Amino acid sequence: MRTSTNVKLRIAVSVYTAVFVCTAFCILYILHCTACSPAAKQPEAKTVAPLCPQRIISTLPSITEILFDIGVGGRIVGVSSFTAYPPEAAAIDKIGGLYDINHEKILSLKPDIVLYSTENESLRQSLTVPGRTLDHRTLQGVLESYTIIGALFGDEVLAAAKNKQAALQNRLNEFAEKAKHRKKLKTLICIDRSRGTGSIQNLFVAGKGSFLTDAVQLAGGENAAESVGLLAPVLSAEGVIGLAPEVIIDLGFTPPGAAAESDLADWQTLGGNVPAVKNKRIYKITDDYATVPGPRTPLLIEKLERILHE
Fold first, then answer.
1. Which of 130, 144, 175, 287 is the right S-S partner for 218, CB 3.0 to 4.6 Å?
2. What is the CATH number of the domain that holds 94?
């Protein structure tokens, strides 16, 4: 019995690790693409989509979450391999990830429309299936996509999408109002890094213009790496010391049952040169919503509020 339980636990840990690591990898890729592309409004569709599509393919987890949020999740026939939420999405056919989307799989699912992200826009040029490209690199882009997606399904769904959009906008406005009256703590957000090396290596952080920067600002902080001027800068230990963050948020994965403290030990090598280390203000966030901009982003902002101000 104990052996069986241990095997199940190892399998669960492996699956959870894969989902979180792959999602973090997606974030790095998205931020890299954003750095190579100028900020812009939502791209216009090049193919006219059918009215009220019944078979939808979503190529990004955040798009999938919005589809479920506005009530058309039951029409999805294909999703990204990295999609972990909502639970119902687990049973939907997978079409691959950002780098390995399977064209044949998409065509075999006979979709009425494919919803692309700005990161896989090139795929759209090679398929004849009607499509729409959405920009989820910022929270503003997420908000705009509600009505863009809703309009594809007719007046009833569009009305629902507008209601959801307004509700999310109101929540973000509430955060912004509270943030006006809070001390802006310099916060460094680690997206990924080498772990267990006894030092800070290959440190990717959220930089200027990403949805993670939006989230920190709405929580009443400021992104310590925004001044670097890049979307996803890679920092050395010396670079972290130079930024002098007051709080460090580590989005890295810690397996269930493992001690978060041991995973954070690498940061201690920076010593008292960094206020966050000196004052023991290094925190881990392993929730999957932390790396998926969309309807659940208020959960991330709430957690950041508690970390920064409680």
1. 175
2. 3.40.50.1980
